[in-house]
Amino acid sequence: MIQSLLIANRGEIACRIIRTARKLGIRTVAVYSDADAGALHVQQADEAVHIGPSPVRESYLVGEKIIAAALQTGTQAIHPGYGFLSENAAFAQAVIDAGLIWVGPDPSSITAMGLKDAAKALMHAAGVPVTPGYLGENQSPDRLKPEADAIGYPVLIKAVAGGGGKGMRKVDEAGDFLDALASCKREAASSFGNDHVLLEKWVLNPRHIEVQVFGDSHGNVVHLFERDCSLQRRHQKVLEEAPAPGMDVATREAICQAAVRAAKAVNYVGAGTIEFIADGSDGLRADRIWFMEMNTRLQVEHPVTEEITGQDLVEWQLRVASGEPLPLRQEDLSINGWAMEARLYAEDPSKGFLPSIGALERFEIGAGCRIDTGVEQDAEISSFYDPMIAKVIAHGIDRDTARIALADTLSNTVIWPLRTNAGFLVKALEHPAFVAADLDTGLIGREGDALMPPERPSASVLARAAATLVPPGRISGFRLNAPVLREAVFLLDAEAVTITFDAPALCGAAESTIVAEGGQVWRLSRWRVDGAGAGAASDGAILSPMPGRVIAVAVAAGEHVTKGQKLLTLEAMKMEHSLIAPFDGTVAALDTTEGAQVSEGMLLAQIDRTEAQ
C-alpha cells in the first residue's frame, strides 16, 4: 500500500481524499496557493507546501511545482482529485517520469478519451452505441453545413476538446447553423486552444445517465452501476442520484456492460465514468442510450455511488494505484437503497447565480445527511476558485426517502452573509416533475422561475423574528391574558418592511437577527417602531447591494444632493457599482469611508428627502 500521498487539488475533494488516506494510515501532503494558506485541506493534511499565487495558472495548474513539492516532501504518490490537472495526460506522464505513483489511469487512456471525436470513433469500434452525427476531419463550413442538414434539426455542435458546457451550441433551424458554428469555434479556440467540432443529433427529452467503472492493472474491470445527472443548469449538474429512476434490470445490464466494454477498449485502470445520453421520451430503453464521453477521473458526484454500494471509491483508487487487484468482483456488488447529492454553491440565484464571495460568518448545514466540504465557519470564499462550498448527500431506502431527507437538510441550512443556492435546491427537490422523476436536462431551463426561492420569509417567521428586536420600552398597551399586536418597520436586507407581530411582555433588544426559512437566509434589522416613518425607511437608505470595497466617496455628511447624483462607488466581483441618490435631499448620515470593506445590506448612507416648498 502507498505510504505517503500528495493531493494535487484543494477544497472539498482534497479533504475527502485526506479522510480516506488517514483511515488507511497514509501520510498526506497538501499544496496551497496564497488564497488557501489557511484553508481546511491545509489544516487537515500532515504537511503542506506553498505552490504560488492565488490564480490557478500560477499555482494549481503548474505541474512542475506540484511534482517538486512531492519530491521535496519524500512523497510516493500524487492524487489529482477532479478538475485542474486530473485529466492532463502530460502531467500524468510527468508524474510517472519523476518516479512517482500516479493515482489515475495510464496517460494513454486519458489521451484516447480526451478528444470527443476520437473517443466516439473508438467506442463505435468497441461496440458501444454512439449518438448519430459527424466526426470527420473536414471542418470547413461547406462540409459541416450539409452534414448538419443530413442529420436533421435540431442538431448539436460540440467542441471536440470541450467540457463544462463550453463550445456547445444547439441549432434549431438550418438558417442559424453557420452563425452558431462560427460562434462555437471561436469559443472552443479561446477555451481549449482547439476549434474542431463534431455534430450530433439533438436528443429529444434528453437524460444524462453515467456509469461508474473501475479497472485494475491485472485486467479486471467492473461497473458500480449508474447515476442520473439529468437535473442541470447550463450543462452544469445540480442534483445527482443513484440509481437512475425508471431503469429496469435489462436496460441497466445493457448500459453497464457497454460501459465496461468502453473501459476495456482503452485498458482502463482506476476510477472512470462513462457518460451516456438517453432519449427519455418513451422511458429508458437500451436502444435509445448513446455514449457521450468518458471522464478519466473521479467525479464530483461519486458519493452517491458510494452510498448505494457501501464502497469507498477513493480507497479503491489508492489500492489499485498500489498494484492491488480490485477489492470486489462484479457479482459481489449490489445496489442498496437510493442516494441523492446536491451541490451547495455560494451564489445568488436571484442575480443570475452570480458567485457570492467573502467570509462565512455563519456556516451551519442541517443535520441528517453526509456533508463533504472543504470550508468551515469564518473561511473565505475567494473569487479565484469554484464557489462550491459543500456536497450534501442523502441515502434512504427509496427515492422519496432520500429526496425528503436532502430537502430537509438544505431547508435547515443557515449560511451568512454569503448567498447560496440552498433555497433553489429545495425548490428543485420539491418541484412536481422532480418528485415524479419526470426528468430531462431541460427541466431547470423550462421551470426556472418556478424554482426561484421566495424573496422574503413567510409572515409568521418574520413576526417571530421581529418580536426579538423591539426594545421592551417601545411596547405599550400590554394587557394580561390578551395578545398585543404591534406594527413596526424593519429592514429586511435592503428593503423596508412593515411587520405586524404579537408583542410579549418582554422583548429582546438586539439590533438585528438572522432569519432563515427553506434554505434562504435574510438579515432583519431594527429600523423604526410603532409604524413611524415607513416611507423614509426605504427611500433614503443607501445599502450595499453585495459584499465589496468602497473605492470612492463623492459626498460628505450634510451635503445637499440631487436625484441621480453619484454618492459612492463600490468594487465587487471585479466590477464597479455606482450608488446614487434616489431623490433630491441631504446626506443625513455617512457611515463609510474610502477603502472600507462592506457586507451585503450594510447601511452606507442616509438621504433625507428635501420637502417640496
**First-residue to last-residue Cα separation:** 85 Å
Query: How many discrete domains?
Result: 6
Q: Return the CATH class of the largest domain.
A: Alpha Beta
Q: Indicate the multimeric state.
A: single chain
Q: How many H/I helices?
A: 17
Tell the overall outline. Answer: globular
CATH architecture of the largest domain: 2-Layer Sandwich
Strand order of the largest sheet: 14-13-10-11-12-15-22-20
Quick one: CATH superfamily of the largest domain? ATP-grasp fold, B domain
Q: How many beta-strand runs?
A: 35
**Percent in strands:** 25-35%
CATH topology of the largest domain: D-amino Acid Aminotransferase, Chain A, domain 1
The percent of residues in helical segments reads: 25-40%
Compact description:
By secondary structure, the chain is α+β, with helices and mostly antiparallel strands.
Salient structural properties:
613 residues; alpha+beta; Rossmann fold; D-amino Acid Aminotransferase, Chain A, domain 1; Dna Ligase, domain 1; 6 domains; eight-stranded antiparallel sheet; five-stranded parallel sheet; 17 helices; 35 strands; 27% helix
